[in-house]
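Researcher: Good morning. I'm working through a list of sequences from a screen, and I'd like to move beyond sequence-only analysis. For each chain I'm collecting a predicted structure so we can compare shapes side by side. This is the next one on the list. No need for commentary yet; just the structure.
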Amino acid sequence: MSKVIILIIAIFALAAGLVMGIFLASQYYQLPEAEEERTEKEIATPIQSALISSWRAIIQGEVERISGREITLRANNDTLSIVIDQNVEVARLFQNEAAEGYSLEETNFESVNIGDRISVNARLEEGKIVGKSVTILPELTETEQ
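Model: Good morning. Structure tokens for this chain:
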């Protein structure tokens, strides 16, 4: 009988620890307000260090604005502006029924439109996020939305 009581106490302690851990984590990790556009400086600040020689990211979202070589992407109520390199490689991913999969077709930056879903391979260069390659993604199907 005493083993059963010890087992019940252990289970209760584990459950209480789990609940307390979740509570403390939710208090510690507060998400920033997503409606404000973050600047490149705000994003770059945490990773500026003489020890970091380069930084790369894959950034995905819907094109909200295009201004010259700068595009603004939106995803999950968050926005980010990216400068697109002059020598950017742009491709369109499309469903290729003949190959029963997807294929890439080379295109140019001018074929990127507001509302397109894109993926940008970017680098941090002199404190600016610079897009080095862009892939225009296919439209989401109803089941993917």
